[in-house]
Amino acid sequence: MMPNTQNFMGRSYECMSDCADMSSYLNKCHSCRVESGCFMVYDRPNYMGNQYFMKRGEYADYMSMWGWSGCIRSCRMIPMHRGSYRMKSYERENFGGQMYELMDDCDSIMDRYRMSDCMSCHVMDGHGLMYEQPHYRGRMMYLRPGEYRNFMNMGMSGMRWMSMRRIMDSWY
User: Keywords assigned by UniProt (predicted)?
Assistant: First the structure.
């Protein structure tokens, strides 16, 4: 991934792995080119704040495209996963309430499971993206294998997760 100023002008920085704070390399970053792999980018250091998924391609003016007022401050490389996807989704924090197991994309958690809220989950296999609106729209959050006991404690308070999409190896 190579972040630059707007329209690929000015200084650039090549990033081939996780970078918790890009401010020491670039004070502004308004365009980005992903030459291989997939990345999650964040508008705050240490993988915090708004998140956006980037796969191979050019993003000449991602700020207006995503409605961001800031710029990329950190990024995380998403490792390729070949195999099945398994996630248990819970309607309450700390794995409480109704539980549903997802093994494929879900464009509306509410319609499929009659689940009004998803407040915790356990990703057993694969990597995925949770979206705040049905049909993979709105703000998103990257989920890698692990336990997510309370989305509100992750800086996602007030957000309801309404759809989920797997990150597929064909995206690389």
Answer: Eye lens protein, Repeat
What average pLDDT score do residues 23-28 get?
Answer: 80
Determine the number of helices (DSSP H) and then strands (DSSP E) in the chain. 2, 13
CB 116 within 8 A of CB 92: no
User: Residues with Cβ < 8 Å from 114, sequence gap 6 or more?
Assistant: none
Smallest CA-to-CA distance from 148 within 170, 118, 171, 169 is with 118
Residue type at position 6: Q
Q: What is the mean pLDDT of the chain?
A: 86
Q: In what order do the strands lie in the sheet with 48-54?
A: 48-54, 38-44, 74-78
| Least trusted range by pLDDT, from 27-41, 51-65, 74-88 | 51-65
The token pair at 93 is 């924090």
The SS3 of residue 112 is: helix
Mean pLDDT to the nearest integer, 43-61? 87
Give the Cα separation of 159 and 151 in Å (integer).
Answer: 9
Domains and CATH numbers, the chain: 2-78 (2.60.20.10), 86-171 (2.60.20.10)
What's the helix, strand, coil split of the chain in %, to 5?
15, 40, 45
